[in-house]
Amino acid sequence: MNDISTSIDIDAPADVVYRVLTDFERYSEWNPHTRISGRAEEGTRLRVSPGPEAGRTPTFRPRVLRADENRELRWLGHLYVRGLFDGEHRFLVEDRGDGRSRLVQSESFDGLLAGPILRRIGADTEANFRGVNSALKARAESLWAEATEATEATETNDARDPAVDGASD
């Protein structure tokens, strides 16, 4: 079996990271490497295709094997037929505490053509994974910063508002 694994630390909680990861409709807003359509639900099929910066990667129709909210998304895809070039792709979101997470993106490849294909495209595939990780990090951190700032602004305004403290005229 041939494996590629990448990871990135993200200054946002696991639920924010997972929400960005599985909000496929918004990928075009932040992810230049991948386009996904479908639902992140076990047993469903996705359509995973290259984004504008992905290079020459094929479109796959993998089946979701696991969709564990705020924790893991995993699917299995095949190039043409099972056993030729199969890939089990996994996103694992680890809660690091204090509003931080780690995203691990990996794929295990198997099949008759796994070795030859990975010798040809393995480095590009890993670079694509790193690009997705970086883009997801930027998106999740931005959304988390906006949410945190909005919460802080509300708390500051509430602290200044005498009605919040129960004061009356």
TrEMBL record:
Name the Pfam families on file.
Polyketide_cyc2
Quote the CDD domains the UniProt record gives.
SRPBCC_4
Q: Which Gene3D superfamilies match?
A: 3.30.530.20
Segment Disordered: which positions?
Answer: 148-169
Its signal peptide is none
* Protein name listed in UniProt: Polyketide cyclase
Instruction: Show the taxonomic lineage.
Output: Archaea, Methanobacteriati, Methanobacteriota, Stenosarchaea group, Halobacteria
